[in-house]
Structures are given as C-alpha cells and as structure tokens.
C-alpha cells in the first residue's frame, strides 16, 4: 500500500522534524542549568515550539493516512503486526502530548513525560520496521 511519493516524503519529513526536535529538546533539558543563563536555556523552549508545530502537521497527515493507507492495507492483510503497532504508538504519543499540555497534576505529569519520551524514542525503530516489512511484503510473490 505504497503512499504517493509527495505525501510519503511529507510524512517522513514531519516525523523527522518531530524526532529531531524531540531529541534536541531532551538534550537541552538535561543540559540546562536554571541558575545560569546558557545556550541550552534558549534552545529548550524553541525546540518545544517547533516540536508542537510539527506535531500539528503530523496529526493532519496521520488523519489522511486512514483512508489513503490504513484502511486499504488492512483489507489487503498486509503488515498486520506493525500497522496496528504504528497506530498504537502514534495514539499513545498523541494522548501523552495532550496530557503534557493539559494535565494539571504535578504527580501525574512526570509519568506522562517519561512515557512520552520513551515511546517517542521508540518511534523511529517502529517506523523503520513498519516500512521495511511493508516493502518486503510488496516484493514477495502473491503479496
């Protein structure tokens, strides 16, 4: 169920921006020192802003995947393990992002943050596996 090339490149670019800005924010957050002004103090909020903007674009693209890719792939019986895994990973990232933005509980927030980070760090591996298995199934006779 190959995506149209421009859509696929846009989706990959959105995921790349999310992964890169999330990783840079993570490093900046670990490195910043609130007691002294430094470059990490400036980078962290900028990365969060870019990360949030990329997340909004990615939400639009993920919504378009339902009729363009997910429904057709499910009916064809392809990627029955990694497809639902991709949906679950993205749903979890969306839910935890919502929780990070709107959760008022200071007890719950660190748990939500840790879960969001862990799942976000796993996303590139899950995405690569999903694409690789999808390409393998397309190359097999009768697939």
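^ structure tokens above, recovered residues below v
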């Amino acid at each position: 169920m190959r995506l149209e090339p421009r859509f696929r490149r846009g989706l990959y670019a959105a995921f790349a921006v999310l992964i890169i800005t999330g990783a840079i924010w993570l490093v900046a957050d670990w490195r910043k020192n609130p007691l002294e002004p430094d470059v990490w103090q400036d980078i962290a909020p900028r990365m969060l802003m870019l990360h949030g903007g990329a997340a909004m674009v990615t939400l639009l693209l993920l919504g378009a995947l339902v009729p363009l890719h997910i429904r057709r792939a499910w009916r064809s019986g392809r990627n029955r393990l990694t497809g639902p895994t991709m949906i679950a990973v993205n749903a979890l990232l969306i839910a935890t992002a919502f929780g990070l933005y709107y959760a008022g509980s200071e007890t719950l927030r660190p748990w939500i943050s840790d879960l969001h980070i862990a799942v976000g760090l796993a996303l590139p591996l899950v995405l690569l596996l999903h694409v690789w298995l999808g390409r393998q199934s397309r190359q097999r006779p009768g697939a």
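The chain is about 80% helix and 0% strand.
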